[in-house]
């Protein structure tokens, strides 16, 4: 086990002078916090004997019913509460599924890049992760089939495909409808299990929820869901939807791991879904994140030097940025932190050391003006890196790194507020460039 690139940044991004484009923290301040607080207080005062007691290892029956209502928005109309296992966030759900299915040495297919929390789970299970290429339309079916053919030829057991089809973390892209059908066809042809991780599916900016993979085949897909992005991450309530035979194993695994999920948080989510206009609240979140996404993309277009490219998400939390040729996001990170801006280097989203030229930018938590200032600081750092790279291009890598580490951070004037330079300021704008990664 090892620390993730995101967790390693926590001590940095908590500093007030740092604009964090790193962590994917939802904007919980947009919730009606007074109403939520009263609701939870009423639960304890009126139902304390239930909410403060042990519960079922599978989860509260009422909450499992409401979870089925939530999944119906994505076309999963045949789900039964008996197939749902409530978990401590979808992260625990992924860990349980991996414990049930994976033996050391088994192969797991995952998109390139992939969610850093999933890679940590797979590594702890001693699985071998094989990445499958993505593009602007999500997972590439031809690359998936090639990976399956090569694994079969090598005698490897592919236990499942792990995928985040909607507003991908970290890439921000969404699996297109034709590709969803193609992936499901490959699952049938190659007897492949799919783990569909879908925390962002209701947070689309341009259209309603897409039909889930689980809605297309109930036997081939295990679905992971979470209330962290649509209600509260601090409550840590997620779920797994699985066929009954798998569900039985998941309940055994969760009872061995935590006995049962916390009762109070389950009752809180169920009461919220029963009494509050939660679908309207999701629309509030969506509009807030859309505004912050727009601020991010506008700032990137105005400020980033030529050769920088990025994805254009139509939902969710993340932009995936590729640096100009020759730059390394991991090596550049200390200079960015010195310039009071934080991001997550791309290397953390691969199991095999790829991704040094990429970074993940999260727009969900900062206000739009903070985002603009953060992108301004980041652009300055990238420009400085390009200057250094150009100056020492003929120098060997070791000497280049030594010189680079001795260059001072940008001055406070360079780190100043948004008023120091407008979004249209730099002379090297690349508005006509195709910024799709």
Distance between the termini: 31 Å
Please state the structural category. Answer: alpha/beta
How many strands? Answer: 14
Q: Name the strands of the widest sheet in spatial order.
A: 2-9-8-7-6-3-4-5
Structural features:
alpha/beta; Aspartate Aminotransferase, domain 1; 2 domains; four-stranded antiparallel sheet; 13% strand; globular; disordered C terminus
Description of the molecule:
The structure is a single chain. This protein has 437 residues and is α/β, with parallel strands linked by helices. It folds into two domains: 7-29 and 281-420, Aspartate Aminotransferase, domain 1 (Alpha-Beta Complex), CATH 3.90.1150; 34-275, Type I PLP-dependent aspartate aminotransferase-like (Major domain) (Aspartate Aminotransferase, domain 2, 3-Layer(aba) Sandwich), CATH 3.40.640. Helix content is 41%, strand content 13%. The chain is built from 13 helices and 14 strands. The strands form three sheets. The chain has an eight-stranded mixed sheet with strand order 2-9-8-7-6-3-4-5, sandwiched between helices. It has a four-stranded antiparallel sheet with strand order 10-11-14-13. Helix 5 links the parallel strand 3 (107-112) and strand 4 (128-135). The chain is globular and about 65 Å long. The model is unreliable at 406-437 (pLDDT under 50).
């Amino acid at each position: 086990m090892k620390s993730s690139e995101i967790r390693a940044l926590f001590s940095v991004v908590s500093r007030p002078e740092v604009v964090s484009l790193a962590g994917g923290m939802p904007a919980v301040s947009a919730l009606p916090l007074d109403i939520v607080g009263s609701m939870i207080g009423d639960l304890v005062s009126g139902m304390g004997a239930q909410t403060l007691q042990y519960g079922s290892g599978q989860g509260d029956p009422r909450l499992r019913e409401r979870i089925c209502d939530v999944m119906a928005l994505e076309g999963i109309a045949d789900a039964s509460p008996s197939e749902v296992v409530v978990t401590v966030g979808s992260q625990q759900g992924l860990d349980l599924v991996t414990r049930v299915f994976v033996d050391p040495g088994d192969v797991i297919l995952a998109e390139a890049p992939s969610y850093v929390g999933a890679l940590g789970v797979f590594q702890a299970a001693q699985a071998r992760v094989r990445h499958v290429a993505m593009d602007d339309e999500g997972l590439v079916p031809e690359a998936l089939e090639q990976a399956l053919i090569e694994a079969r030829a090598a005698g490897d057991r592919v236990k499942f495909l792990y995928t985040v089809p909607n507003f991908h973390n970290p890439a921000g892209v969404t699996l297109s409808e034709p590709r969803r059908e193609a992936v499901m066809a490959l699952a049938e042809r190659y007897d492949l299990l799919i783990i569909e991780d879908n925390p962002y599916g209701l947070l689309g900016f341009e259209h309603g929820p897409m039909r889930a993979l689980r809605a297309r085949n109930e036997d081939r897909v295990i679905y992971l869901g979470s209330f962290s992005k649509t209600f509260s991450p601090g409550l840590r309530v997620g779920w797994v939807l699985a066929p009954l035979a798998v569900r039985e194993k998941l309940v055994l695994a969760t009872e061995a791991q935590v006995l049962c999920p916390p009762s109070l948080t389950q009752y809180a989510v169920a009461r919220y879904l029963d009494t509050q206009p939660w679908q309207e609240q999701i629309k509030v979140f969506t509009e807030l994140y859309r505004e912050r996404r727009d601020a991010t993309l506008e700032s990137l277009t105005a400020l980033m030097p030529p050769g920088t490219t990025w994805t254009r998400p139509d939902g969710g939390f993340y932009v995936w940025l590729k640096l100009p040729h020759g730059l390394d996001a991991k090596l550049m990170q200390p200079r960015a932190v010195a310039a009071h801006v934080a991001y997550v280097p791309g290397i953390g989203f691969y199991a095999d050391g790829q991704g040094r030229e990429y970074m993940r930018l999260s727009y969900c938590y900062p206000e739009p003006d903070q985002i603009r200032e953060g992108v301004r600081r980041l652009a300055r750092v990238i420009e400085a890196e390009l200057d250094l790279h150009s100056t020492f291009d003929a120098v060997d890598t070791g000497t280049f790194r030594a010189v680079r580490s001795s260059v001072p951070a940008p001055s406070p004037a360079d780190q100043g507020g948004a008023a120091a330079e407008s979004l249209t300021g730099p002379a090297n704008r690349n508005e006509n460039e195709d910024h799709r990664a």
